[in-house]
Every structure is written in C-alpha cells, then in structure tokens.
Design brief:
mainly beta, Porin, 14% helix, 51% strand
C-alpha cells in the first residue's frame, strides 16, 4: 500500500509539472518525469483451459521515457472464469454426500514493475519485468457455497482441504509489449506476451504446484500517459 501511495504522489507531481509546462509553452524545459496508467485484460494459457484476468499497472517514466518504474496488480476471479476443477476429498470425508467436488480457481498478483522501453517509428515497445507476490487457491462454487450447517463457506473450505485451500508464493514474470498510438494524444492501445513462474506454491487441489507455474499469458490493454 505504501508503494501505491508513493506512486500516486509521484503521478500527481508529474501531472502538475506537465500542466505547468503546457501553460508556459515554448519557454518550458523538457520534463524529466512522465507518468503512465495501464488497465489490462489478459488470458493465461493453463494446462487444460484459458484463465482470464484483469488488472493494471501505474507509475513513472524516466530517462526520456526509456524506463518505466511502477506498481502492477492483476487477478483472476470466479465470475469471469467458469471453468471448474473436480477434486476428490480426503479419504472418509464428504460434502453434501459427495466424495469429490467441483472447484473454481482464483489468484491475485502484485508487486514492482520495471520496463525498459524504446521506439521504432511511432510504435513503442517495452519489456515489463514483474517481481512480487502471488496468492492463489480454489473455492466452492454454485450451490456448494450454501453450506449444510450455515457456517461460513471459508470455514468449510479450510476443513475440507485441511487448511490448504490457498497458498502464497513469490513470482517473477517477464514480457514483451507493443504500444500503438491512437488519434487521442497520450493514449495508446497494445498487446503483449508474458512468461510467469512461481516457486513453492501448493494447495490440496494442486499439490504439484504446476497450475500457474511456468505459464504464458497474453495481455490486451490501453495505456494512458504523459507525452
């Protein structure tokens, strides 16, 4: 949270500097700090299906826009991921008379973004590197969220999966993106491909930890930023 607050402060400072530069016009010096805000949608290529995620990155641009430094956050939620994973329950345990249940998966990723950038003609390319934390797990869906005794569904999930319904791990991701200008000044649309790896993440439904490990994802985004 403190990093997000710091970045917002830097963005505010940069916006104010850019506005002042525009007011003074030709006499203004070239800006030293720029800003960017990039909401995105992405598709992750998992073992047997495509997982969908939404997120954003934001931060500052340095060295004449050749380096972006910022914060990233993206995640997968159930409403946009209807795929279910059938999971057998521990021996001797049942839920609503069933010895296996269909689960949905979710995850959240956040941390530091570093992205060297350059231009060919009017198209910008960057190499975003994400370093941070990754939390993911599996949860009951549909009618199974109506627990048989009225207890919170999270209590049942912890009990059914022996406290291993979710886990956290460190993550590293690297990608390549193309940012294409639009007719609106300071707005670009773009696409990218990313490679994600996480270590030591394991849950009851995925004890091998390979559900998200060493996976590719494609991103589609709109970039807002200083010019």
């Amino acid at each position: 949270m403190k990093y997000a607050i710091l970045l917002f402060a830097l963005l505010t400072f940069s916006l104010g500097t850019n506005a002042q530069d525009a007011a003074t016009n030709a006499t203004a010096k070239p800006r030293k700090i720029g800003w960017f805000l990039t909401p995105e949608y992405s598709s992750m290529f998992l073992n047997d299906h495509i997982g969908n995620a939404v997120g954003f990155s934001m931060g500052i641009k340095l060295f004449k826009d050749h380096l972006k430094i910022g914060y990233y956050n993206y995640g997968r939620s159930g409403p946009i991921n209807p795929h279910t994973i059938n999971t057998p329950l521990p021996a001797g345990m049942t839920y609503k008379g069933k010895s296996s249940i269909d689960l949905r998966a979710d995850h959240g990723a956040f941390g530091l973004m570093l992205a060297p950038a350059w231009r060919f003609s009017n198209v910008e390319f960057d190499i975003p590197v994400y370093i941070g934390s990754f939390g993911a797990g599996f949860y009951l869906a549909g009618d199974d969220r109506k627990t048989p005794d009225g207890r919170r569904v999270s209590a049942w999930e912890n009990e059914l999966f022996e406290g291993k319904d979710a886990a956290f791990a460190g993550m590293f991701e690297v990608g390549v993106r193309a940012l294409i200008p639009t007719k609106i000044n300071g707005v670009q649309w773009g696409v990218g491909v990313h490679y994600l790896t996480i270590q030591d993440w394991s849950t009851y439904a995925n004890p091998s930890g390979d559900f998200y490990k060493n996976k590719f994802r494609a991103s589609f985004f709109v970039n807002f930023g200083s010019k």
